[in-house]
Amino acid sequence: MTLAIIGGTGLNQIQGLEIIGTQAVKTPFGNPSADYVFGKLHGKKLVFLSRHGNPHSIAPHNINYRANLWGLKELGVTRIIAVAAVGGISKKMSPAHLAIPDQIIDYSYGRAHTFFAEAGEAVQHIDFTYPYSQPLRAGLINAAASLNLSISPIATYGCTQGPRLETAAEIQRMERDGCDLVGMTGMPEAALARELNLSYATIAVVANWAAGKAEGEITMSEIERHLSKGMANAIELLQAFISAK
Ligand code: HPA
Fold first, then answer.
1. Residue 176, pLDDT score
2. Which of 10, 2, 5, 66 is nearest to 33 (CA)?
3. How far is the CA of 118 from the centre of ligand 1 (A)?
4. Which pTM was predicted?
5. In 43-154, which ranges are E strands?
6. Domains defined along the chain, listed by start
7. How far apart are CA 34 and CA 173, in angstroms?
8. Cβ–ligand 1 contact at 184 (below 6 Å)
9. Which of 45-54, 74-83, 139-148 has the lowest average pLDDT?
10. Phi first, then psi: what are they for 241, rounded to 5°?
11. Ligand 1 and 233: CB distance under 6 A
12. Which of the 8 DSSP states describes residue 214?
């Protein structure tokens, strides 16, 4: 078992996952968001972790990203597919659309964002030019093609601090910066995976137009409605990815 799925808002469990067992893991960085769930999907073993806990109660800035990733490494995982709800900034990123981002801009702050922080330890600088695993991204993009599912194979993910949504001006700035998507959990998750030498890619599921990109307020009921449609596609995509391996 080498593949893990980290599920975000709207993906607390995977339909069709045959559950084999669960395991709590303690790490030097504290406790992960939830017990790890071992299961089989299309005959392939995988580990599932609910990023916001069970029930969904850990806000993006309070997630123990280090424990979550450390625990996966300890379980023998080598590849991670993260599923993340996002707001859509650029034109193609309409609600319920899926994207496989290739770049990140990090606007988050104050999060425990490295394993290399111990005093007296030699500082290490990981290469993060391409933050996501290209082979994993290619696998997901091919799986989408096999389903005739229209996705965006390139997108820049901007990570904000949350838990509040952004202002319209913040989204305009992010758009000028080149962000296509905005989410709250992509970092430090991706960088910590790289520090542990774990392959990592994200399926971003658009839940809403980002602030100022559509008329009116962004409501939770709107987010939930779009997410349930988008997550159904994300699960199909995961199933196609897994059965292609
Ligand atoms: N902004 C940040 N994170 C999000 C959003 C958003 O609009 N929608 C879902 N996650």
1. 98
2. 66
3. 32
4. 0.95
5. 44-50, 79-88, 98-99, 103-106, 151-152
6. 3-116+130-243 (3.40.50.1580)
7. 35
8. yes
9. 45-54
10. -60, -45
11. no
12. S
